Each structure stands twice: as C-alpha cells, then as structure tokens.
Amino acid sequence: MAKSYIIVLLMCPFTIISCWIIDPEQCNPGFVRIYQWPSAYASLHIPKYTVQIINEAWHVKGVYDVHVSCPDFASTTLINPNVFRRIDLGNCLLDDGRIISPGEVITFEYSNILPYPFTVTSFKCS
C-alpha cells in the first residue's frame, strides 16, 4: 500500500517558505516496541522473563495511555502495578498511563512457564 503524506506550506513573516511533512500514521502502534527474553528462574524453577517496552516514536513529544494485549496474563512474582497492570481481560496498562518520552524504556519482569505474546493495541500521542 502506498504511503500518503499531507504537506503543509507555511509562510514566515520574512517570506521564507517552510515545508512540514505530517505523517498520518504518527500514532501507529508499531512505534512502541516490545522485547522480551528469558532472564532467570523464580521459585520452583519457574522461568522469569524480562520485558522492555520502548517508545520509538521520535517525531512526537511522547506517548501515553499505552495499552498492551495480554491474554490470560498471570505471574508467579509480583509486578509493580504502576508499571504494568491488567485492567480488563486481555488488556493491560503500561506505566499507569503516564507519558513515555521518545527513547524511554519501561522494564518489568514476570515469571510463568511460557512467555506471553504481548502486543501494543493502542496509545495516544502528545
């Protein structure tokens, strides 16, 4: 599919023309990336996984109200609910909905027999 852009021309008071390109996909969920890997073992030799969620949306001031698909998520170790918490069946909130700046990394660990297939479902740009 071809990518479309909206071009906005602005006149400065000194008759210099500026051209800004605005990407209509600036809040695409693909700009917030989720990485996870096995990192250790919890009690009873249950695998522990480290999760890093990174805001790679460099063209905005930040993202907030980041929701992650987390079907049947459970952990045998406690996760700080201000960092990651389930708010509904299959819907988790990241960093208590606060603004996450470009390049900022949110990290947490959980433990379960198998890793969960986390995906970003929505967020808002600031």
Automatic annotation (TrEMBL):
A Pfam short name: TPD1_C
Domain of life: Eukaryota
Presence of keyword Signal: yes
GO biological process: cell fate determination
Organism ancestry: Eukaryota, Viridiplantae, Streptophyta, Embryophyta, Tracheophyta
Species of provenance: Perilla frutescens var. hirtella
Signal peptide range in chain numbering: 1-19
Keywords on record: Signal
Stored InterPro entries: TPD1
Protein name in the entry: Uncharacterized protein
